[in-house]
């Protein structure tokens, strides 16, 4: 949940099935119910933040989306794809319960106008490895460069 100057934004997870889509609700704080509803192309909205009074959301597919005024459109994507097919998505992205690869408070806006995301892409099963190009740690997104791995833990 994040707030802009005129609205409160609430991201949800759809725990019914992976084929169902997550919803983001916008509420003006006055109406008896949410004013608008926006569907994501993933089953969960994991974390949200506000940059320049515009909400951004990271979904369960590793996609960062920005509110454009009528919908949420992709502006960045974590580099999970490694070509093997087996581990192309983040840890627990296909699990309909917690824990997810980003905690709901795991995304912040910096003073320089970028977004930092704390990613945990470690698998708990000993026989599974994570993609080499998707290390856990802090990933930074900027409009100019996209996602860059900034710090390892």
Give the structure's gist in a few sentences.
The protein has strands at 2-3, 8-11, 23-27, 36-39, 45-51, 54-59, 63-67, 72-77, 107-109, 115-119, 137-142, 146-151. The chain is an all-beta fold. The strands form three sheets. Strands 1-2-3-4 form a four-stranded antiparallel beta sheet, with no helix packed on it.
Mean pLDDT: 83
Number of helices: 0
The amount of helix comes to under 10%
Characterize the quaternary organization of these chains: single chain
CA radius of gyration: 15 Å
The fraction of residues in strands falls at: 35-45%
Could you tell me how far the N terminus lies from the C terminus, measured between alpha carbons in angstroms?
A: 26 Å
User: Based on helices, strands and strand pairing, what is the structural class?
Assistant: mainly beta
What is the total tally of β strands?
12
Question: Numbering strands along the chain, what is their spatial order in the largest sheet?
Answer: 1-2-3-4
Anisotropy-based shape? globular
Q: List low-confidence stretches.
A: none
H and E string: EEEEEEEEEEEE
Report on the biggest sheet. 4 strands, antiparallel
Features:
153 residues, mainly beta, four-stranded antiparallel β-sheet
Can you walk through the features of this model?
- By secondary structure, the chain is mainly β.
- The chain is 0% helix and 39% strand.
- It is built from no helices and 12 strands.
- It has strands spanning 2-3, 8-11, 23-27, 36-39, 45-51, 54-59, 63-67, 72-77, 107-109, 115-119, 137-142, 146-151.
- It has a 4-stranded antiparallel β-sheet with strand order 1-2-3-4, with no helix packed on it.
- Strand 9 (107-109) and strand 10 form a beta hairpin.
- It is globular and about 45 Å long.
- The two termini are 26 Å apart.
């Amino acid at each position: 949940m994040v707030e802009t100057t005129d609205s409160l934004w609430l991201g949800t997870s759809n725990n019914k099935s992976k084929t169902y889509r997550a919803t983001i609700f916008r509420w003006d704080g006055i109406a008896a119910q949410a004013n608008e509803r926006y569907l994501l192309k993933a089953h969960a909205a994991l974390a949200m933040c506000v940059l320049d009074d515009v909400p951004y959301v990271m979904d369960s597919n590793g996609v960062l989306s920005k509110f454009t005024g009528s919908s949420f459109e992709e502006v960045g994507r974590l580099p999970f794809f490694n070509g093997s097919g087996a581990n192309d998505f983040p840890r627990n992205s296909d699990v309909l319960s917690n824990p997810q690869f980003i905690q709901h408070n795991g995304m912040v806006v910096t003073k320089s106008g970028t977004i930092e995301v704390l990613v945990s892409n470690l698998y708990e099963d000993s026989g599974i490895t994570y993609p080499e190009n998707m290390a856990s740690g802090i990933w930074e997104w900027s409009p100019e460069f996209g996602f860059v791995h900034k710090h390892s833990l």
